Amino acid sequence: MARPEDRSAQAVRLLRTIRLDPSDRFVFPVAAEPGEWAVTGTFLFWGRPIDQLEGKDRAAFRSGFVGVESLGFSTLVVVEEIREDEHRAAVEALARHIHSHLGAPTLDAATAAAAEELAFAASLADHDIGTLVAMHRLFEKGEIHEQYRTLKPRERTLGADGLHAQARAFTFHEMVDDEAPEERVDLIGMMGPKP
After folding, report:
1. Residue partners of 37: CB distance under 8 A and separation at least 6
2. Exposed, middle or buried: residue 64 (CB in 10 Å: 0-12, 13-18, 19+)?
3. CA-CA distance, 189 to 142, in Å (whole number)?
4. CA 40, CA 66: separation in Å to the nearest integer?
5. Residue 44 neighbours by CB distance under 10 Å
6. Pairwise CA distance, residues 99 & 162, whole Å
7. Are the CB atoms for 36 and 94 separated by under 8 Å?
C-alpha cells in the first residue's frame, strides 16, 4: 500500500486560470473563466501576422494563457493538482476546439495536439501548489519567444506581538531568458489596492 507522501509525489500538476481582479474581461478579446485548466495557447497565434496585432489581440498575444474550455485568455494561472479524469476531460475539450475551430484534419490528430499542449503546460507547473505563473510573449526575428515568471506564497511568520502575520503574501522568483530584453510585470499592482 502506498504511503500518503508517495501518492502526492505521483500526483500530476497543471495550470489553472485564476482571476485576481476583473481586468482580464476588459484586456482580452475573450476572458477565460476562473478555474479552467490552462495551456500557453501560443498555437492560437501561429500563422498570424503578429506584428500587426492591435488592442485586445495584442494583449492576448503578449500575456494570455488559454483556458481549455473557453479558449479565453487569463493573465495568471495557478499550479494545482489534476485528477486523471480531469486531465482526460481537459484533453478532450481542447481537442474539440483544435478540430472544430483550428482545422485539425481529424479528431485523433487534434487529440494528439491537445495532449502535447497539456504536457507542455504540466512542465510549467513544476512548482509548489498555489504558485502563480505569468507569461510574456515576444515576437522577434520572425519567432515567438516566451518568458515565465512565478509568484510563490510565502510561509507565514508571526510579528513581534506573536499574533499577526508579518511579511508579504508572496515572494517573486523570476525565470529569465538571457537573450530576451528585460521587461517588468507588476503582479502585486494587478492584485488591486491593499486593504
Report:
1. 14, 15, 16, 17, 67, 68, 69, 82, 86, 87, 90, 118, 121
2. buried
3. 32
4. 6
5. 19
6. 57
7. no
What are residue 132's phi and psi, to 5 degrees? -90, 145
How far apart (Å, rounded) are the C-alpha atoms in residues 189 and 134?
Answer: 14
Amino acid found at 128? D
Q: Which residues, at least 6 apart from 116, have a Cβ–Cβ distance to it below 8 Å?
A: none
pLDDT in tens, 62-92: 999 999 999 999 999 999 999 999 999 999 9
Nine cell digits for residue 68: 481549455
Can you tell me the distance from the alpha carbon of 82 to that of 87, in angstroms, rounded to the nearest whole number? 6
Instruction: Give the model confidence (pLDDT) of 108-146 as tens digits.
Output: 999 999 999 999 999 999 999 999 999 999 998 888 999
In what helix (H) or strand (E) does residue 95 lie, and over which residues does it extend? helix 84-100
pLDDT in tens, 8-63: 445 799 999 999 999 999 999 999 999 999 999 999 998 889 989 999 999 999 99
C-alpha cell read off for 113: 495536439
